[in-house]
């Protein structure tokens, strides 16, 4: 594995730079995060004890607009992880032409060990700590792993308490009743679905004859699995942090979702009304899911899932990265040598930030769109950007990942140039 997640992330930049004309100024600027803050968050626990949690906010780059990126609550959150996620956000916003730079935040915590009241105090405490570093024109957070609408609502409320006026545009992914956008909850999955619907026919894959395995059954993974199921794809395996289920005949995803929502357990079930019965299936580990003989693999959990240790055993010819950073650079090289096509995270999961941008626009207008309008606008964004990245990959004979970075870099370069680069000042 790469030395750090961030050094692995930066290798993507090195690969792309070779295929486009980028000024030294841009390359130099993009090597470093603009600012990184580490905060301590004291929380009064339900038993009266005071616990202090560590949190981060990274503004990687804001050349193209205010920084944008989610907040993650996870025991593995570290400065290295948050910087990498903020780096990816910079390229993701540029790849799909959202007028934002990249940011990210997180708290090192296992929220499953906290009561809901403790999670609320932690969320408000995080905003107390970072309030001077975020804002609708500075850096706009959103949900990520183990954070959700309710948490975004508490955070927006806390920011508004500090500022003494309501500031809905400071955070996206909020509850609809607090200025959230219709379609935000489904946006990451919907965006990935549009990318898949556009690309799979180019690979001559039709829904009926295409098997899919999805790792991670949270916001992004479970909704995408359902969209694929509804469109006629055979979703044969899904998993969550506790492991996975596999049925060669395909899983009934709406039934699996319903049972997971009610029991918090991932079960291979088929439900008729309120009666759910187990269907023929195998229990598999997350590692086994990745190595299944399927047509399409969708990592939708965490980073560093496909590494040099298991890349050689991956059989799916197409990988659509819904998670951020699920494939390491070493694994990329192995997959490429096997002819496996990887559709990168910065394109596949960009639907989330796109509708976050729409939410921010609606907050600033004070005028709200229907879900249909949101989804139409999302599709209008995702399809042309997917086409452009496809074309760059074909013309330059490079991987889709490198093509997506080239596409993003060209846009970042325009913004850097607009402020003047070395060659400009040499002429003065
Ligand atoms: P989530 O918290 O809703 O779900 C995460 C899922 O991953 C859960 O099902 C969890 O059980 C599972 N999981 C956790 N650890 C696992 C492990 N070791 N192996 C397998 N599964 C594991 O999170 P989400 O919002 O769905 O995010 C998933 C991924 O998508 C993350 O990489 C996130 O950065 C990325 N993403 C999310 C959004 C968004 O809008 N939600 C946008 C862009 C990218």
For the structure shown, list the relevant keywords.
428 residues; alpha/beta; Rossmann fold; 2 domains; 7-stranded mixed sheet; 14 strands; 44% helix; globular; binds nicotinamide-adenine-dinucleotide
Write a short abstract of this structure.
This protein has 428 residues and is an alpha/beta fold. The chain contains 15 helices and 14 strands.
Describe the 3D structure:
With 428 residues, the protein is an alpha/beta fold. The protein has two domains: 5-178, 3-Layer(aba) Sandwich (Rossmann fold), CATH 3.40.50; 187-348, Rossmann fold (3-Layer(aba) Sandwich), CATH 3.40.50.720. The chain has helices at residues 5-17, 24-29, 79-95, 116-130, 149-163, 184-199, 219-230, 253-263, 286-290, 329-337, 345-348, 351-365, 371-396, 400-419, 422-427; strands spanning 35-44, 50-61, 67-74, 101-108, 139-143, 211-215, 234-240, 243-246, 269-272, 275-278, 282-284, 296-299, 318-320, 341-343. The strands form three sheets. Strands 11-8-7-6-12-13-14 form a seven-stranded mixed beta sheet. Strands 1-2-4-3-5 form a five-stranded mixed beta sheet. Helix 3 links the parallel strand 3 (67-74) and strand 4. The radius of gyration is 21 Å and the shape is globular. The mean pLDDT is 96. The structure holds nicotinamide-adenine-dinucleotide (NAD). Nicotinamide-adenine-dinucleotide is lined by residues 143-146, 188, 215-221, 239-241, 286, 300-302, 322-324, 349, 352.
